[in-house]
Amino acid sequence: MSGPTEPPSSGEGYRDYGVNPFVTAAEDRLSTFAVDVDTASYTLARRKLLDAELPPKEAVRVEEFLNYFRYTYPAPTASDGPLAVHLDAAPSPYTPGRYLLRVGVQGRRLSVSERKPAHLTFLVDVSGSMQSPDRLPLAKRALRMLVDNLRDGDTVALVTYAGNVRRVLPPTGLEHKARIHSAIEDLSAGGSTAMASGIELAYQEAMKTLDGASVSRVVILSDGDANVGATSHEDILKTLRGHVKEGITVTTVGFGMGNYQDTMMEQLADQGNGNHYYVDSLMAARRIFQEQLGGTLEVIAQDVKLQVEFDPKQVARYRLVGYENRDIADRDFRNDRVDAGEIGSGHTVTALYELELKPGAGAGLATVRVRAKRPRGESATERTYAFPAGALARTFPEASADLRFATAVMGAAELLRRSPHAERWSLESVRDIARAATPAGNAEREEFLTLLERARPLLRGVAAR
């Protein structure tokens, strides 16, 4: 029996954004990027590993691994506005002499009564490629779950696309929930894929309920394949950019394997000022459409940019781990015309930096600035947070459990994407760190430990080639 190998080439679509290098702080003290709360990369990798297959290294985005997990960041106070920033650091367990700095952003959690009415337009791919049980049938169950978690005042419209597009349901209030459920249940797959025409029709439906007092969002459920009409990525993204200024955001929810177009789905959400998820199970659907519904539906801050300034007297070199496709030019940090990321109700964002510190480093080694607009706002406000004296742990075991677990998640992602910075790291040390930072009964962290065990023989097989 042959050993495990690299994943075979397939019809799936991924983009390699490279790996951030180390930067000398004396030459460039600023690191600027857009926030990202997408989680698709982690759930897609989970699906691959459970199928005894390594995810393609291009599919592994470190930030989406980090942001899948929940961390305990302080909630914003009244003076913070919608966002609060948390900073901490510790010696790296992977490379002697290096340190890890964690930047955590916590979005304000809106109460149920604070949530604006949501007008959702479901755009469902019913082409032939969506027939298998892990695609349209799972998408239908996810949609029924979402509808069951909506409330009075919300509306649902339903558009489908295959060889042609169809308006299945106009904007319909929750008092007609049975009609909505019936329309979802009647969906079936067959035909080719006219995605661009589907997006146009979905926006037409969404415009019918657009007003300043509610949330209007198109939710695209697809494997990302597009083979009829304006099928080039750039043509479809251009369609999106023309509509996003009107105030309608886009969430993409990916399904399936074998021909999954990750790049298309990720960029649709990016250009549509929304989030990108991948659903591999009912559990994943429940997390997005039930447990985290507020964040999935309502944006609390848009065009959110982070800029970390390192003190060259304390920091010799640094590298941002992940966020390669979210990079922003330092000069554009205060340019409010430059698009950035969105944060939903209760969302958290986590970024890790690997640092080489100079002797005596501590308070003020980094200063974090956050710029963000209110939803549909034109100009951004900015807040500044300095690294506090007590935030640097003396040893890695003394760091908080959350920082230690985030370190394990980052380490696993770096190994899975075969990062050159992780050549001397081991999955065994990642597993030990994760296990020590997983409290009993924490299901998502325990599942991560299971995935590490699945990954060990696969990575070992690749290394042995």
Could you say which overall geometry the principal axes of the C-alpha atoms support?
globular
What can be said about the biggest beta sheet? 6 strands, mixed
Instruction: Count all strands and give the number.
Output: 16
What radius of gyration results from the CA coordinates?
A: 22 Å
Strand adjacency order, main sheet: 7-6-5-8-9-10
Give helix % range.
Answer: 25-40%
Alpha plus pi helix count: 12
Distance between the termini: 15 Å
Which structural category do the helix and sheet elements fall into? alpha+beta
Portion of residues in beta strands equals 15-25%
Taken in chain order, the helices and strands follow as: EEHHEEEHEEHHEHEHEHHEEEEEEHHH
Mean pLDDT reading: 91
Residue windows where pLDDT falls under 50 for at least 5 positions: 1-9
Secondary-structure blueprint:
Elements: E1 23-24, E2 30-34, H1 40-50, H2 62-66, E3 83-91, E4 99-107, E5 118-125, H3 136-148, E6 155-161, E7 165-173, H4 177-185, H5 195-207, E8 215-222, H6 233-244, E9 249-254, H7 262-271, E10 276-278, H8 282-291, H9 293-297, E11 299-310, E12 315-321, E13 341-344, E14 348-357, E15 366-373, E16 381-386, H10 401-416, H11 427-436, H12 443-463
Parallel strand pairs: 5-6, 5-8, 8-9, 9-10
Antiparallel strand pairs: 1-12, 2-11, 3-4, 4-14, 6-7, 11-13, 11-15, 12-14, 15-16
Describe the structure in your own words:
The longest helix is centred in the last third of the chain and has 21 residues, at 443-463. The protein is an alpha+beta fold and 465 residues long. It has twelve helices and 16 strands. The strands form three sheets. Strands 7-6-5-8-9-10 form a six-stranded mixed sheet, with helices on both faces. A five-stranded antiparallel sheet has the order 1-12-14-4-3. Strands 2, 11, 13, 15 and 16 form a five-stranded antiparallel sheet that branches. Residues 1-9 have low confidence and may be disordered.
